[in-house]
C-alpha cells in the first residue's frame, strides 16, 4: 500500500513539474505583451460566451484575467497560471495564481479564470496578497448560452471557462495570488 502511495506521489510531482514547464513565460524581468494580448482575447471570448459578464466588467472596481490556468492531479493536485490585472479598464499589473489541493481527483485541464472585485477594499486585498480563496470558494463555470445570475461573495465574483482536458475531482484546496504592479518603461 505504501509503495502505491509513493508511486502516486511521484507521478503527481512529475505532473506538477510538467504543468510548471508548460506555463513558464519566456519573458523575464520585463512586461509580457503576449500575456496582455491573451488576457484581452480570453476576456472577449468569455463575454461573447456570456454577455452578462459585460455588466460585471463595467461595474466592478477592477478585475483580473487569467487566460490559461493549467491544472493537474492524481490525489495531490496543483494549478498555476499568469494573468493581467485591470483597474478602470486599464492594465495596472500582473498576477500569478497558484493552487494546491488534496483529495479524490484525477486528470488535467486548462481553463480561463476571471475575477471581479466589487470595491477598492477587495481590490487592495488582492494586490496586497491578502486575498486567498479557501476550499469553500466557488467559481461559476461558464457554458455557451447559459444565463448567469450571480452576486459578489465576500467582495469577489469568479468565473471560469474550460479550454480543454478532463478532470474528475472532489477535493479541497485554495488559490493564492501574487501581484506585481506594472512599471512604466
Summarize the structure.
With 185 residues, the protein is α+β, with helices and mostly antiparallel strands. Helix content is 29%, strand content 44%.
Keywords:
four-stranded mixed sheet, alpha+beta, 4 helices, 185 residues
Written account of the structure:
- With 185 residues, the protein is of the alpha+beta class.
- 29% of the residues lie in helices and 44% in strands.
- Strand 1 (62-87) and strand 2 (90-117) form a beta hairpin.
- The longest helix has 22 residues, at 2-23.
- 30% of the residues are buried.
Indicate the topology.
Layout: H1 2-23, H2 33-49, H3 53-59, E1 62-87, E2 90-117, H4 120-127, E3 140-141, E4 156-181
